[in-house]
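Example (one chain per record):
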Amino acid sequence: MTSLLNTIQMALWNISDRMNIMDVIDILLVSFIIYELIILVRKTRGSALLKGLVLLLLAVGISDLMGLTAMNWLLKSVIGNGALVLIILFQPELRKALESIGSGAFFEKHRAGRESTERERIIDELVRCMLALSRRRVGALIVFERRTGLQDVIETGTPIDSMITAPLLENIFEPNTPLHDGAVIIRGERVVAAACILPLTERQDINKELGTRHRAGIGISEATDALVLIASEETGVISIAQGGTISRRLDEDALRKALKELYEEPAPTWTRLLHLEHRRKETV
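Predicted structure:
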């Protein structure tokens, strides 16, 4: 215990009395590299390996503090001789990072023009899809993941992991196809799953005209902060649900405005969406 306290006191003294501007820059650079590494591997199988490495480092520290000499020696030996093992395990992620740096994508990935073009393409594809489904009276249910994760919902459906295109979404919701019955989940710029099962709202004051598809859309929007697009197969009406509230009869302009808010604002405020210019909201 005394050793731990001495270590903490020494660390605090070094921070308060010896740190200069170069130390701050050094810490920021290391933090940036660690952050980029986490972003690189978080959606790959390397994320589990990274967690294991962190636990191994924690075990080294704990064994040292508790005086477990043999255990500490063993763990340090693994880490000391594990550089080659890490390179082998993280080979796909390292290759991806090096290719990004070589092509300049690493430094350009936040470039506004490039992102704006992709957002516009996605919005155009989604609008084209919803209008086409509406004209043909084909039912559709599309859920956009936001801050609240939807992994539990995604696991109820069929994984896809595809770029967002109108033909793909229209084909998914085509009647009598394997994936048409259920919801499509979109995470960022990717379609991640189809035929997903959503929780139904338990509210009793829902408009009787709204069927299971609309109840499911309202239900997931009550349980999470997700945005939901719904196309009615009976009427072709396009609706949007968020926060347990549904807005119906969206035209192309209103639909495009909603999607633009979704993709351009990091944390969009949907109050404006629920009070659309043409007063299309219907209380349910």
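Caption: The chain has two domains: 2-108, 112-275.
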